[in-house]
Each structure stands twice: as C-alpha cells, then as structure tokens.
Design a protein that fits this description.
By secondary structure, the chain is an alpha+beta fold. 63% of the residues lie in helices and 10% in strands.
Length: 293
C-alpha cells in the first residue's frame, strides 16, 4: 500500500472518529437539554421532537425514519461517495439520542433557558465538528439542495428560513404553547450563530482566488453544487507568459470548506488563495444603501 493511500485511510479514520464523537454530543444535547424542555430547534431534529409527542417511539427513531427517504434521494442525486459519511452521522445521532433518553433520563435538565442556550450551543459545536469532518447531519441541508434544483429562483437562505418557520409553527400547535415556539425560535438563532463561530470564526465571508488548469470544470461545480456566483479574471503569468483564467468568488462562510473540497477533488495542484472579506455588498449579501440608512 502506498504512503498516499495510508495517509488517506488515516485521514478518513480520523474523520469518522470525530463524526462519532460529535454525533454523540449532538445526541446527548438533544436528549438531556433540548427535547425535555419542548424545544424544537428547526430542521429535522425539531420535527422529530414534535412528532415524538404525537407518536412516542423515540426522538432518535423519528430522526432516523425521516432521514431515510431524504438520504435515498441524496444518494440518487449526488452519489453514495458524497453521502456515506452523512448516513453514518445520521445513524449515530439517532442511536445516541434514544440511548441517552432511555438510560440517562435521571439527568434530564428541566430548565428551558439552559435548554435554549447550552443545548443549542452544544448541538452547534457538534454540527461544526461534523461539517469539518466532511459530513452533515442530514435532513434540512439535503432538502434545501433538492428544492434549489426545482425552484432555482428562490434563494437558499429564504428556503432555510421557510423550513425552520414551518417547524416552529407546527411546534407551537402541537405543544399548544406559544412560549415554547418562541424559545424554539431563539434556539434556531443560537444554533446558527454558534455554528458560524465554530466553523469560520468572526469573519463575515470569504474571498477565494483559484488558479487551475481546469477552471471550467471547477466553475461549473461551484455554480451547480453551491449556488454561488463566480467571475473569470484573465491573467498572464509573469515568468511563463502563459494566459490563464483565474476564478474569483465571494462566498458565504459556511460554504467555504465545500468550495475548497471541490477544488481539491478536481485539481489537487491548483493554486488557491482564501482570504477574509469583512463586508460584501450586492445581490445575495448586504445592500450598500440599507447599511447606511
């Protein structure tokens, strides 16, 4: 076995160990902090908590059941190679959520403030580790990607808001408690903020320059898979005199690791500069005029 293959296997093993650890933390936070306090933090997890109040078979079991058709479609649309780690993370989250709910019920923390803050923060940290290990927790991420294929005129951020709002409305109806629904909304905000902080620090966005021998393939994947814009800047090497297309794109923080993965897969020898962009004005970002009103 070559040294490159050994390195690749070690890297994947490390990824799966981190996914196992983070998914277990996610399950622990859901079982002991979020679920007992009737918090539905958006997405599939929130919907699983709500459905478990109607048919009590376990929040983790509901999480798994709802993800099965989503993951099947993900395999069909995006291939097993890019879905297998997400399948694993989903299974571990499901199993650990119900395990902790059953065997650590004596340690339930019945405090909605702690559930919203500590529970949501722990979930976000766990999700951040999962994302950094080249996986996702399934559910909403896959749904949004599929919806974008059918409704490309609707922006990704709007679809996330719509799905979370639907879950929050359902939670308010099932719990018959508007306070619980409002706390669930706060949970969504806490999770989003902490996840951004874990993944990308305090930077607002990323500006990426890519110099590659395969610019058209990389650009096509960035446009199709990440739903971002890109610009070709025509440049000429100072020493070689060779003319090249330089890909320039401003990108949301959470998408930066995925963009880097695309470049790495298509051209391991590509020259890539990733820098922080503190402010970006224009479509998909901030309005210049609104910021100064």
């Amino acid at each position: 076995m070559s040294s490159t293959n050994k390195t690749s296997i070690k890297a994947r093993l490390k990824d799966y160990l981190l996914i196992t650890f983070a998914s277990s933390i996610y399950g622990l936070a859901t079982a002991l902090l979020v679920d007992p306090n009737n918090i539905a933090p958006g997405g599939i997890t929130g919907l699983a908590i709500v459905l478990n109040r109607i048919v009590p078979i376990g929040t983790g079991m509901w999480f798994l059941f709802m993800n099965i058709p989503i993951l099947i479609v993900a395999i069909w649309k995006f291939g097993i190679r890019f879905t297998i780690s997400t399948i694993y993370a989903t299974a571990v989250i499901s199993l650990t959520t119900d395990f902790f709910s059953t065997y650590l019920s004596a340690f339930y923390i019945n405090d909605i403030i702690l559930g919203v803050t500590i529970g949501s923060a722990l979930s976000a940290v766990a999700m951040g580790i999962i994302f950094k290990s080249h996986a996702t927790s399934g559910g909403t991420d896959v749904i949004i990607k599929i919806l974008r294929l059918k409704y490309p005129h609707i922006k990704t951020g709007m679809l996330y808001i719509m799905t979370d709002v639907i879950v929050l409305i359902i939670a308010g109806i099932v719990f018959q408690d508007i306070t619980a629904a409002l706390y669930s909304f706060i949970s969504v905000m806490v999770t989003s903020s902490v996840l951004d902080l874990v993944l990308y620090g305090r930077d607002g966005a990323k500006l990426i320059y890519i110099i590659s021998d395969h610019p058209d393939i990389i650009t096509a994947r960035l446009l199709d898979e990440l739903d971002i814009g890109a610009t070709h800047v025509f440049a000429q090497g100072a020493y070689s005199g060779e003319k090249k297309k330089v890909i320039m794109c401003a990108i949301k923080k959470r998408l930066s690791p995925m963009a880097e993965d695309i470049v790495r897969e298509e051209d391991p020898n590509a020259f890539m500069i990733v820098t922080s962009a503190s402010e970006i004005f224009g479509e998909g970002y901030k309005s210049y005029f609104d910021e100064r009103m």
